[in-house]
Amino acid sequence: MRLLESLKIEPDTRVILRTDYNVSVVNGKVQDDFRIKSSLQTIEYLLERKAKIIIMSHMGRPKGRDRSLSLKPIAEHLGILLDKKVLFFGDVESALSGIEDMRPGDVAMLENLRFFPGEEASDKKFAHELSKLGDVYVDDAFAVAHRKHTSVFLLPRLLPPAAGFLIQKEVSVLDDILLVRKPPVVFILGGAKVETKVKIFVKLLHKLDAVCVGGLLANSILAAKGIAVGKSRYEDIEQYVEEFDITDKRLHLPLDVIVSKDPSGRSPVRTAAIGDVKNDEIILDAGPDTVKLFSKVIEDAGTVVWNGPLGAFEVKKFGKATRDLAKELKNTGARVIVGGGDLVRAIHEAGAEKSIYYQSTGGGAMLEYLAEGTLPALEVLQ
């Protein structure tokens, strides 16, 4: 992997910097700037060399242009962190015009890449349009390194590419986990994005000492095995069912769950044993017995890798299992690696942040790297 330090950066060099600023913004205010701050080392390195920096990122999953997912508030927040104005371009055309007026050491940001149809379509024409904005390309967007999207998979083929300091750090820490194995190794998989996680789950189950499963992946496994999940969200994973045994001693599924008829939290909730979920009920969190089970599993672990909350964390009462399990991290001497914004917030709320060995900016990317040892966007940085 080619490193940022190997690129020749001179005053006036136009640097396309791909970051991942997919963060929560409410009423125009950034709620959590962990990912933004994680890119500052790379930005400051480029500023020291008086480069012209053109930052590209995405946010959310917009269907066309959506004002609520504009990167303008991100640009303003970054400007505060850097103590300098960050220019903002609403499209590639205005960026091509505006970059001519940029001075050495100026920073600009392009509007949300996913506003453009070509970004997620791996569009060569869009890649060529973007390439006109830079002389070199630096990738610091680890959280989307598992995607074959235009800005991370095609664009770096058109310019001299390199990995920024954040990607270098992510890869170094994850390589250490792979090479310096500290058993027992336990994975906790929660959250959504079942399609990504089930593939990784199947690959990793046979390599690990234990896997604790919550969230939509747990719902999907239970449903695939014919266990009632009521009206709960789940995905069809039938094609993977033959690849794992639900009775495998390394696999730990929920023993009980918190259910309700209303995901907003306004209706009554109850604790139900697995298999006792009624047809009109929705699984919204793991239950207390599940937390006890998972706590026991991680108690003697040497390494814990946790991605995604155990329940519908956005509603406070359905984040209880995640927060309770996070508190148990304080009782383990394991190296704890976490990924996923909601999960990190839960760990901070539980006062267990000092238990974290490393906080990854990526969730799915982190898991896929641990399963495969590489990622598509990293391959093109060679």
UniProtKB/TrEMBL annotation:
Catalytic reactions of this protein: (2R)-3-phosphoglycerate + ATP = (2R)-3-phospho-glyceroyl phosphate + ADP
Keywords, comma-separated and alphabetical: ATP-binding, Cytoplasm, Glycolysis, Kinase, Nucleotide-binding, Transferase
Any Gene Ontology biological process: glycolytic process
Superkingdom: Bacteria
Subcellular location: Cytoplasm
Keyword Hydrolase tagged: no
Principal place of residence: cytoplasm
Pathway: Carbohydrate degradation; glycolysis; pyruvate from D-glyceraldehyde 3-phosphate: step 2/5
GO cellular component annotations of the record: cytosol
EC number annotated for this UniProt entry: 2.7.2.3
Binding site for substrate: 20-22, 35, 58-61, 114, 147
EC class (word): transferase
Molecular function terms, GO-annotated: ADP binding; ATP binding; phosphoglycerate kinase activity
Binding positions for ATP per the UniProt entry: 197, 314, 340-343
Binding site for (2R)-3-phosphoglycerate: 35, 114, 147
Matching Pfam families: PGK
Quaternary structure and partners: Monomer.
Database matches in PANTHER family: PHOSPHOGLYCERATE KINASE, PHOSPHOGLYCERATE KINASE 1, CHLOROPLASTIC-RELATED
Family as reported in the entry's similarity comment: Belongs to the phosphoglycerate kinase family.
Name of this chain's protein: Phosphoglycerate kinase
Protein's organism: Candidatus Spechtbacteria bacterium RIFCSPLOWO2_01_FULL_43_12
Organism placement in taxonomy: Bacteria, Candidatus Spechtiibacteriota
